[in-house]
Amino acid sequence: MSVAAFFHLSRPYTVAEIAELAGAAIRDPAAPPETPQVITGVAPLAAGHHGDLCFFVSPRYVKELASCRATACFIRPRHAHLLPEPIVGLLVEDPQRAMTLAAARLFPEALRPESLFRASGVSPGAVVHPEARLEPGVIVDPGAFIGPGAEVGSGTVIGPQAVIGPNVRIGRNCSIGAQASVICSLIGDRVIVHPGARLGQDGFGFARGDKGWVKTPQLGRVIVQDDVEIGANTTIDRGATRDTIVGEGTKIDNLVQIAHNVVIGRFCAIVAQTGVAGSSVIGDYVALGGQCAVAGHLEIGEGAAVAAKSGVMRDVPPGARYGGAPARPLRRFLRAEALLDRIARRDKPDEAI
Questions:
Q1: Which of 49, 79, 81, 260 is catalytic?
Q2: Closest Cα to residue 233, out of 274, 188, 286, 185?
Q3: H or E element that contains 105
Q4: pLDDT category of residue 27 using cuts at 50, 70 and 90
Q5: pLDDT 10s digits, 104-153
Q6: DSSP structure string for 214-275
Q7: Where are the alpha helices (DSSP H) in 23-94?
Q8: pLDDT for 239
Q9: Which residues are within 8 A (CB) of 342 and not within 5 positions of it... i.e. 6 or more apart?
Q10: Binning pLDDT at 50, 70 and 90, where does residue 2 land?
Q11: Measuring CA to CA, which residue among 296, 292, 290, 228 is closest to residue 265?
Q12: Strand, helix or coil at 330?
């Protein structure tokens, strides 16, 4: 069975159509069928059956490929000889990207959260303030709240129990997931906010007082540019005296914390459980691995990459590769780890790693 059981197939595609949209060359099986092969689902190699489309990226999955019974498989030309004879080979240099293109065409509903109520228009169970402005084509699920002065663009879906605060602006063809909250924010077009995400709440700002901590008003906004995706249960605090900004095309995973005044550039990738402290600036095309911690008031240069579980405590130059805690150039970090491991195993040289 296809893994896409919860999503409707847009329509069956022939293998030739799939090859054309992915830019793949076709390697026919030894005994090609008399009628055109049709793709109706996607599946992992081990579960692929007739009608399914799979992809193969690494020789570590040779066993799964040998038992695969899918109709077609994206595969690199140098691995084509590994394909079982009945499977049509779709030869590409990047099978994963090709599979992404194909799956998006086969199951477009899976690209963004749609109405969970499977309805159109504003549900009678939603609360929309009379002063809110919704363009034609907005879908609002039951239990959602849209405050006074809020504006929502056409084609946008507001999920059940989502909260859109006063004067928030949300662009066109966006998706705001169930129980997400968006306040003090300006959202561009084609933005996806997954369920449970929080945008625009207070930043963590306090000053020391005679009797403890004194709360600092957080007066800025959150600005999210076009084509950004924000994962489930991620939090993005509004700025204190300037805006928190997420640049165009950036993808943020689940359970990420972005503090007040942070500026994130375009086309960045920030992986789960990462935390970025206040007023840090992240350049364009930066990648932060899972569970990274970035201290406040730092700058990570354009095109830099930081390995998972790293602690960034100083600026990272553009294009650099950093890792470790504290984070340092990746090669130096790996050499230090190897040296420590050798020292630790001196008394037991034969011990398995």
A1: 260
A2: 274
A3: helix 95-106
A4: confident
A5: 999 999 999 899 999 899 999 999 999 999 999 999 999 999 999 999 99
A6: EEPP----EEE-TT-EE-TT-EEPPPSSS-EEE-TT-EE-SS-EE-TT-EE-TT-EE-TT-E
A7: 62-66
A8: 96
A9: none
A10: low
A11: 228
A12: helix
Tell me the residue length of the chain.
Answer: 353
Note whether 206 and 190 are within 8 A (CB).
no
Give the whole-angstrom CA distance, residue 71 versus residue 39: 7
| DSSP annotation of 3 | S
The token duo for 303 is 């095109």
Tokens standing for 333? 């970090």
Report how far residue 128's alpha carbon sits from residue 149's, in angstroms, rounded to the nearest whole number: 10
Segments making up each domain of the chain, as ranges: 13-111
Give the amino acid at 126: A
**Catalytic residue at 194?**
no
DSSP-based three-state secondary structure for 150: coil
pLDDT at residue 124, as a whole number: 94
Site of tokens 């650099």: 320
User: Is 60 exceeded by the pLDDT of residue 1?
Assistant: no
Pairing label, strands 235-236, 139-140: unpaired
Average pLDDT over residues 342-347: 83
Q: What span, in angstroms and rounded, lies between the C-alpha atoms of 307 and 240?
A: 29
CATH annotation of 13-111: 3.40.1390.10
Rounded to two decimals, the pTM is 0.92
Amino acid 349: pLDDT: 61
The strand pair at 293-294 and 251-252 is best described as unpaired
pLDDT at 4: 61
Tokens, residue 194: 């997954």
Q: Quick: pLDDT tens for 263-281.
A: 999 999 999 999 999 999 9
